[in-house]
Each structure stands twice: as structure tokens, then as C-alpha cells.
Amino acid sequence: MPAMVSTRLLLLVGESAPFRKLSHVCWTARFHSSVHFLSRVDHNQGPLTLTSLGFKSEFGTTNENRISKPKQPNSPIEVSKSKVKVVKSNGVKAVGVKKPLEIEAAPFSAKSFSELGLPPLLIERLEREGFAVPTDVQSAAIPTILKNHDVVIQSYTGSGKTLAYLLPILSEVGPLKKKPLDGERDKEPGRKTDIEAVIVAPSRELGMQIVREVEKLLGPADKKMVQQLVGGANRSRQEEALKKNKPVIVVGTPGRIAEISAAGKLHTHGCRYLVLDEVDELLSFNFRETMHRILEHVGRRSGANPGGTKNPLARQAERQTIMVSATMPFSVIRAAGSWGRNPLLVQAKSIIPLESVPPSGPINLSGPTSSSTSNSNLQTQAAVASLPPVLKHYYCVTKLQHKVDTLRRCVHALDAKSVIAFMNHSKRLKDAVFKLEARGMKAAELHGDLGKLARSTTLKKFKNGEVRVLVTNELSARGLDVSECDLVVNLDLPTDSIHYAHRAGRTGRLGRKGNVVTICEESEVFVVKKLQKQLGVPIKVCEFTEGKLAVTEEEEKILEVVG
Ligand SMILES: Nc1ncnc2c1ncn2[C@@H]1O[C@H](COP(=O)(O)OP(=O)(O)OP(=O)(O)O)[C@@H](O)[C@H]1O
Prior knowledge:
Layout: H1 2-13, E1 84-86, E2 101-103, H2 120-128, H3 136-146, E3 151-154, H4 161-170, E4 197-200, H5 204-218, E5 226-229, H6 235-245, E6 249-252, H7 254-262, E7 273-277, H8 279-282, H9 288-297, H10 312-316, E8 320-325, H11 330-339, E9 344-347, E10 350-353, H12 375-383, E11 392-397, H13 403-413, E12 419-422, H14 429-438, E13 443-446, H15 452-463, E14 469-472, E15 487-490, H16 497-504, E16 515-520, H17 525-535, E17 539-545, E18 548-553, E19 558-562
Parallel strand pairs: 3-8, 3-9, 4-6, 4-7, 5-6, 7-8, 11-16, 11-17, 12-14, 12-15, 13-14, 15-16
Antiparallel strand pairs: 1-2, 9-10, 17-18, 18-19
Helix pairs in contact: 1-11, 3-4, 7-9
């Protein structure tokens, strides 16, 4: 066992293990509730195909790059010939579905949640909450998770990843789950009413946000079926609630989950789903030991493999592991591969086996790959495509002592209603809030040194518009969903492109407009230029004059005024 533990830990930091490159197939298909998957994917049998993923389809191959439709009526798969483009591989003309395909449109976009195989009661609840059409990543992830695949879900911030994993879980556990059809047996007949899903998030705020999303769907009568286990909250109350309410889903931070579990008050051996939201953060150094314990224990029925000598895949077989983030460094891809059962990488427009992801990362699947890719390139790859395409990025140069005043002028110039301003040191947040308030701008600080109550009150005030500028640190950079947020400001530079991406992603959620402004000193401009290059997005230099945002197009020297 100790030997295995250390191997896994190394997977998080090293970059050298050779990865077998498989050619990957993306496909164009519309999921229907009747789509059938095989029980597992066999990665050793060549490229991934619809059939290898378990779709019962009868695609023919022709020598004219044509894909013929299944012959039977009411076929579960519809493939539009016009949407599938066959690409060349190594100079050899590709033929039929066995060769890599490139996707031109959004192939997974289902028109409704009912197409994805969710139970009617859940769809009713979704409609009641105003969710009518699934996002691309939901259309891709939901049927894949419903077919029991372990998955790594990567798509940009604000694209709906939370429901992408919550919906398939709620359709299998709890009061909204699918009823077995006549003549069909319950999938888990003898199962105790035990914890069936454990969702882990790196911060209390994100944990509570997920709990509220589940509660909304469960409705007031059943909301006790989900229990929060976040740090900072009263632990004995959480333990009492576990005992009294017998929830089927728990959502919490790693430390608190591990604590309650070690005290014997949380029984997760029979758990069917383990979700790691913001997986790259959870597998980082800070959480490593706790996460290791959670990964080792959740979903392992007692008595199954007590000696720990079996192959790790057999030991993981009891649970389905779902790993989620907008940013996926290759080290995380590799760690995820070791914790899941042949996981699939699910993105908005493709699903491929994780093991076929080249070391340059999961994002630039169509770009050139190099086995000697440097660490910083790997970071870059992880950050590209994690940003919503609608975001506009600017930077503004000022002196250190004028940063807060520049922030105030920026908020006015853009007429921003809901602003998140990031700083790196929590001690300096208070000062910035004081300066903003002194100039009549409603502001509040949010950071980890505040108590749970102060944190949730501030967040509530920000969400309901009482606070216009939330001055915060990295605590709020991940997962926080405030749809009204229309401006993100970096008062201090983020440490790298991944941190920039998560901060920036607090605005422009689900296709909304958003601006990101980095306020920096002259000596920091080179870092902004580097971020621009790494992220692959233009970050334009700007000024705030006469209540307007003036943008200089550096290469073309055009001055445009946005007002
Ligand atoms: N199908 C949908 N229709 C309408 N709104 C949706 C849908 N799916 C999700 N949303 C809403 O979109 C917002 C963003 O979703 P979510 O927080 O899951 O994004 P995310 O991809 O997890 O972002 P991040 O990477 O920042 O954590 C939420 O307010 C959520 O309620």
C-alpha cells in the first residue's frame, strides 16, 4: 500500500510518464433518451468510435468519406452528413467513422433536457427553475455519466458544468430518480439508504453554492436529502443532521468530509458517485493528503479488498468518479487517469478517452503536440479555452497609490453594476474598501480570515446588489457564480494564466457580456503581455478619461472610445 500511495502522489507532480497516443474521434450525434452505451470502453482496441462508447449504431463505411445512417427505423443516433467533416491524418485520406473526425458545429447541443435521458420528474423541476435547454457541455456530459463512465469534464467558466454532473446523479439517486420500468429491476435492489454521492469542492462558498443548486431541484419537501459538510460551520450540527435526515448526497470541503468520516459519522463505503469539483485545485499540494484519503475510501464497500492488494482499478470499481474544472493541466489529466476507471474527457464538443490526451494538455486537441513541451506551455494549454469567448480584456497602467482610484473610475466608465476586484493580500483588502466607500461607492471585503457568517452575509449582499464592488482574494476566484457580475478587475496581478482564467471567469457567465480590466504598474506590463500570449486573447491597453474607457489598439495605433 505505501508503495502505491507514493506512486499516485508522484502522478500529481511529475510530467514524464509516456502516454500512448490514440487517434481520437469526435462525432456528430444527437443524444436521445434511448441511446445505448456498452458497459465500458475498451481503449486498447484502437480509436474511439460511437460503437466503442456503447452506441448501438450501424454505421457503414464507404470509400467516399460518407457516413450512412443506421438502417432501422427510430434509430437512436442521427448523424447529419453535412456536419461531419473527415480530416486527413498523416497524409492518408481518412475513410468513414474509423478515422478522426472534426466537428464543425455544436454536435452535442440537445434541444431539450428530455433528449438526454433524464427522468420526467427531474425535467419538471428543471422547467420550474427556468432551465429549458441544456448547454453544450451538459448535452455531452449527461448521457455519458448516465452510462456509468468515469469522466473528466472540462469547459470554460460559466458554461454550466455543475448541472452537467448534478443532473445524471439526481436521476439515479434521491427522490427525483428514474423509476424502474415495468419488468425492470431496481439497479441497486439491496442497497442501504446510505450516502450515495459525495461532492467535494475546494471552498465553503463553492460547496454551499452547489448545495443550494441541489436543494432548488429537490424542492422544499426533500431538501434535507442533501447535506452540507463545509469547514467553518458547526461540526456537531452537521453530524446530527447526517444521523437524523439520512441524506443521500453530501457536499463539502475536503477537510470537513475527511474529519467526519474519520470520526465514523459519515458512511461512504457504499457511495456510487464521487465528484471532485475544481479538480485541479483539489489535487494541488494544499489538499493532497486529505484528497488522497477521500479517494481511497469513498465508494469502497467494507470487506471489498481489505488487504488493499488488488489492482487499483478493481478497487475503484465500486464508484463512478467525476472530475470537473475549466482548467486541466496535464499533471491533473494524468492523476485523474489513475483515479478513475478509464475516464473519458468530456468537453463541449468532443468526448475522447483521457489516455489519448497528448502531454500538451486537453485543450488544443487539433494543434501540434510535442513530447518535449515545457511546463509553462502545459500551463498555457490548461488555460486556453477556459475563458468564455464573449469576454473583453483590458489593462490600464497607473501608479501603485492610484490603483483604487483607477478602479473607481473604471467602474464608472463601464457603468458596471456588479464588480469583483481581486487583490493578492487579504490585509490590503480593508484599505481598498475604505477608499472606495469614502468616495461613495458601496464596497465590501471577502476573504478567508472572516468568519463563516460574515462571509455568507457579504456574499448575499453582493448577490442582491447591496454591495457594488466586492474586494476579494483568490478565495472567490473559483466557481463563484454571480450571474449579474459584469466586471472583474485585477488590482494585483494573478500569479499565472490559470489564476487569471478563473478570476476572469466570474464575469461573462453563460454567454453574458463581461469585461476584465487589469490595473497594473508600468513595471508589470510585461507580465500582462505574457498572459495575453499564454491565454491567446487580446488584452488591450486602455485609459479612463472623462468618464469613458479609451482603448488604444497597440499594433494599429487606433484610438477608439467605448462609452
Ligand atoms: N441549461 C441551463 N440553462 C440556463 N442556465 C443554466 C443552465 N445550466 C447552468 N445554468 C446557469 O449558468 C450559470 C453557470 O453555471 P455553473 O456555475 O455550473 O458554471 P461552471 O461551468 O461550473 O463555471 P465555473 O467553471 O466558473 O465553476 C449558473 O447560474 C447556472 O444556474
